[in-house]
């Protein structure tokens, strides 16, 4: 039973870390997309 609880805690910690990583990647991609959009708008002018 103790091993199951330890495994559950470790799995929860890894899931939380993965969510933060995916969230960070999403923000980075969003910022890159905005930079490309700004660059293309300036190139039109």
Automatic annotation (TrEMBL):
Parts of the chain that traverse the membrane: none
InterPro entries reported for this sequence: Entericidin (IPR012556)
Coiled coil: none
Pfam families listed in its UniProt record: Entericidin
Signal peptide extent: 1-18
Keywords, alphabetical: Cell membrane, Lipoprotein, Membrane, Palmitate, Signal
Protein family membership: Belongs to the EcnA/EcnB lipoprotein family.
The name this protein goes by in its record: Entericidin A/B family lipoprotein
Organism: Brevundimonas olei
Lineage of producing organism: Bacteria, Pseudomonadati, Pseudomonadota, Alphaproteobacteria, Caulobacterales
